[in-house]
Description:
The chain has eleven helices and no strands. The N and C termini lie far apart (about 50 Å).
Amino acid sequence: xxxxxxxxxxxxxxxxxxxxxxxxxxxxxxxxxxxxxxxxxxxxxxxxxxxxxxxxxxxxxxxxxxxxxxxxxxxxxxxxxxxxxxxxxxxxxxxxxxxxxxxxxxxxxxxxxxxxxxxxxxxxxxxxxxxxxxxxxxxxxxxxxxxxxxxxxxxxxxxxxxxxxxxxxxxxxxxxxxxxxxxxxxxxxxxxxxx
Length: 195
């Protein structure tokens, strides 16, 4: 018997942004779906616009599992996780232990298939920056959504993420920002009017 999917089903119980007032809460499961969709399109943009060679389906699958270890660790808020280098290093060790614990739940015949999905140390290096960028883009989108709802709690996070995204060397991220982000500043009627 494997407890893997019983654990993964709990992703929907883990709330993101736990130290911030949220107009609408966001859980790890829905965040992971959004990151997967963004990672998929980033891979497509890379391939079609910038001569990349990234499998979009693999990128999306990696993104689906990118926060899976949080079913064991919970979601540690960014200001805590990156408070100093010692805390960051220790948290990375905790994440690695949680990732391996999940991998231990996988039946032996599927372990090699799940190893790169659950354990970041086994992921292809070519995908890491893309998944990280998709994660940041989705955090930025959350900030925009909260601001649109009148919540100023996310103002500082939005500025920090804007700065970080502007510094990226991935042209597909800049393409995504230019072509997809503006719609997130519109309301439903405005989006429909543009179709």
